[in-house]
């Protein structure tokens, strides 16, 4: 599979481990009418990592690993736009200085970049520690597939995913295929190079029908009949390939978020269900190398 990887620019972007933020008293009213106070976005999450389940936590929109954000709005915009899934990150301040991690996704609205670190490194980190990311991937093109837009993905991770050329199509391993009618928060976003798009989970029976009840953080999934070319929109025959980045939510129209990795409008992508299509395997290989 030919790409323009040799033309990509690698650039540093920086953020700090971001604290959870709340105005007290604070309740989130769920789709069932119940008001809850649970953990949510931000901070260092010690016991929820990529590879863990995305549904069923006593929590809302939890981000695995370390949530990274810059205090300057413009710098944070660059961080969220340029950081790509699979990029290497390094802690550059505090007791965990030198610890290395991998970007696993982006969360829109709160505008966080999510980074997986080894548990021993998370224990040394504190809120406010600076994390620098070697951003590479935006501008990546598949030279033999001009009808596929690629975004938010490090070329090394793309190579690991097991994507195969099959005639005029690109076969992409995924854990599951999500129907367009399950997609919620994120619709109307002006671009797909930042943030995420939520799978709604208010109907457990529909999730079971489509084999999505056991989704895990870091799973690669396909979204059927949705285009991610310039923001998100319904288009029959389109496909989005993305990665699950945060946990479920009690709020109507929300659920596990998906950061877009590639999209087509005319059927060039053929998703193939493969058990274990999850970035956790890539991270494990990177840590061993």
Please indicate the count of domains. 2
DSSP helix fraction = 10-25%
Beta strand %: 25-35%
- Identify the overall geometry: globular
User: Looking across the biggest beta sheet, what order are the strands in?
Assistant: 1-5-8-7-6-9
Total number of β-strand segments? 18
Rg calculated over all Cα atoms: 18 Å
Structural class of the helix and strand makeup?
alpha+beta
Main β-sheet: number of strands, strand sense, barrel status?
Answer: 6 strands, antiparallel, barrel
What is the level 1 CATH name of the largest domain? Mainly Beta
Characterization of this structure:
The protein has two domains: 5-135, Thrombin, subunit H (Beta Barrel); 148-288, tm1086 (SG structure) fold (3-layer Sandwich). The chain is built from five helices and 18 strands. The strands form four sheets. It has a six-stranded antiparallel barrel with strand order 1-5-8-7-6-9. The chain has helices at 73-82, 119-124, 155-160, 204-209, 279-288; strands at 11-17, 28-29, 35-36, 44-45, 65-69, 88-91, 100-107, 112-116, 130-135, 148-150, 164-166, 169-174, 176-178, 197-198, 220-227, 233-244, 257-264, 269-273. It is 13% helix and 31% strand. The protein is α+β, with helices and mostly antiparallel strands.
């Amino acid at each position: 599979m030919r790409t323009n990887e040799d033309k990509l620019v690698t650039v540093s972007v920086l953020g700090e481990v971001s604290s959870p933020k709340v105005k007290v008293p604070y309740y989130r009213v769920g789709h069932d009418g119940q008001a809850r106070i649970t953990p949510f976005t931000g901070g260092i999450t010690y016991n929820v990592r990529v590879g863990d389940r995305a549904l069923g936590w006593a929590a809302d929109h939890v981000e695995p690993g370390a949530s990274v954000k810059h205090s300057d709005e413009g710098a944070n915009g660059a961080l969220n736009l340029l950081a790509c899934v699979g990029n290497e990150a390094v802690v550059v301040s505090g007791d965990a200085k030198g610890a290395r991690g991998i970007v696993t996704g982006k969360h829109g609205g709160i505008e966080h970049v999510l980074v997986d670190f080894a548990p021993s490194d998370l224990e040394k980190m504190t809120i406010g520690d600076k994390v620098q990311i070697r951003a590479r991937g935006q501008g990546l093109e598949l030279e033999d597939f001009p009808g596929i837009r690629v975004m938010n993905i490090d070329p090394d991770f793309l190579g690991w995913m097991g994507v195969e050329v099959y005639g005029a199509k690109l076969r992409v391993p995924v854990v599951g295929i999500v129907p367009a009618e399950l997609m919620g928060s994120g619709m109307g976003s002006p671009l797909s190079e930042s943030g995420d798009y939520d799978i709604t989970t208010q109907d457990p029976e529909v999730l079971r029908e489509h084999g999505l009840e056991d989704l895990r953080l870091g799973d690669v999934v396909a979204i059927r009949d949705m285009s991610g070319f310039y923001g998100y929109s319904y288009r029959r025959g389109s496909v989005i390939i993305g990665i699950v980045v945060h946990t479920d939510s009690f709020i109507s129209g929300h659920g596990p978020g998906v950061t877009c990795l590639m999209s087509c409008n005319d059927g060039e992508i053929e998703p193939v269900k493969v058990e274990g299509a999850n970035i956790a395997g890539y991270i494990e290989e990177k840590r061993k190398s």
